Amino acid sequence: MTEQPHHIESSLRFEGYMVNRVVFELNPSFTGDTAELAFTVERQVELALPELSVTLAVDVFPNAAAQNYPFSMSLNVTGFFMLEGEGADTAQQLAEMNAVAILYPYIRALATTYTANANITPLILPTINVVKMLEG
């Protein structure tokens, strides 16, 4: 008896992404060697089956001058996805979890590359728990 192969391919297909905005501002009055990382992640989901887009906005070291952070950085990236064979309820769950999890590493890479090219210590954003982020 042969086993049937399991279908492991997701019904969510990543079509690509675009960088909407990167804003970097060095804080020349920063005092100190390091600062504890402060950042926020916000998301916006646009669903029009079978297409969906997810926009992630990440703000790193907001209010750099007032908070004595070394710089401030704002990144905004939109990912484009296709859903195949899913209803609207499942599509929303996929958008909120899988799409964010797929897109966030692109934000992380962008932040690291940009700060490295700005000739400062490269910023490596931590991984995030998407489930906990969506609960909060």
Task: Provide a short characterization of the protein structure.
With 136 residues, the chain is an alpha+beta fold. It is built from 3 helices and 4 strands, in the order E-E-E-H-E-H-H.
Side-by-side strand order of the widest sheet:
1-4-3-2
Shape: elongated
Rg over alpha carbons: 18 Å
Termini separation: 48 Å
DSSP strand content: 35-45%
Strand count, sense and barrel status of the largest sheet are: 4 strands, antiparallel
The percent range for helix content is 25-40%
Tell me the structural class. alpha+beta
Mean pLDDT: 89
List segments where confidence is low: pLDDT < 50 over at least 5 consecutive residues: none
Number of helices: 3
Structure description:
- With 136 residues, this protein is of the alpha+beta class.
- The protein is elongated, with a radius of gyration of 18 Å.
- The chain is 29% helix and 35% strand.
- 19% of the residues are buried.
Task: Please tag this protein with its features.
4-stranded antiparallel β-sheet; 136 residues; alpha+beta
Topology record:
Blueprint: E1 12-26, E2 39-48, E3 51-60, H1 64-67, E4 71-83, H2 88-117, H3 130-135
Antiparallel strand pairs: 1-4, 2-3, 3-4
